[in-house]
Design brief:
By secondary structure, the chain is of the alpha+beta class. The protein contains four helices and eight strands; from the N terminus they run E-H-E-E-E-E-H-E-E-H-H-E.
Length: about 170
């Protein structure tokens, strides 16, 4: 089994939107810090929110560069059930690098929170003014994006000319 690059932005966006959690890596000096977070994808921006205080908020104030990852799938596969090195987790992953931009405008924060909730529900939501004022919202403009499919079937001499089947 092998790893394949995913180049289609449409497919990359589908992978991201299929996830409920992303993992955001912050940098605290020379110490990385990774946390699971809720998110929304808005074209070339990832929208995130948190309290306007605490470790993550302080780290972003010092260094707005972040790395975000998503993983979809996670099916165990193998080529030979008795050979440990032939096992693989079939999945798709996306990694984004970018720089956080804090959102301070009330209407823009409310719009971002609506987009965040739309990632998880089709219901309409209302937010109180204090809720919007007190939440920390930031966007990460995607500067680099890459995606991979893990555990794809290997191409052998006898099937090289065949179209590989989709094995999601």
């Amino acid at each position: 089994m092998r790893t394949l690059n995913i180049d289609s932005r449409e497919e990359i966006d589908r992978i991201i939107r299929s996830c409920k959690t992303c993992f955001v890596a912050f940098c605290d000096g020379d110490q990385p810090y990774v946390v699971p977070m809720n998110f929304a994808l808005d074209q070339d921006d990832v929208i995130l929110h948190m309290a306007q205080s605490g470790r993550k908020w302080a780290m972003l104030q010092k260094n707005p560069k972040v790395c975000i990852s998503w993983i979809s799938g996670e099916k165990i596969a193998w080529q030979d059930v008795k050979v440990g090195c032939s096992y693989r987790v079939k999945s798709k992953s996306v990694i984004v690098e970018g720089k956080a931009e804090f959102i301070d405008d009330f209407e823009e924060k409310e719009d971002c929170m609506q987009k965040l909730m739309a990632q998880y529900s089709d219901l309409p939501f209302k937010f109180s003014a204090p809720a919007i004022r007190n939440v920390g919202v930031f966007k990460v403009r995607i500067s680099e994006i890459s995606a991979r499919k893990f555990g794809a079937k290997a191409i052998t001499a006898w099937n090289r000319n065949e179209v590989p089947e989709e094995d999601d």
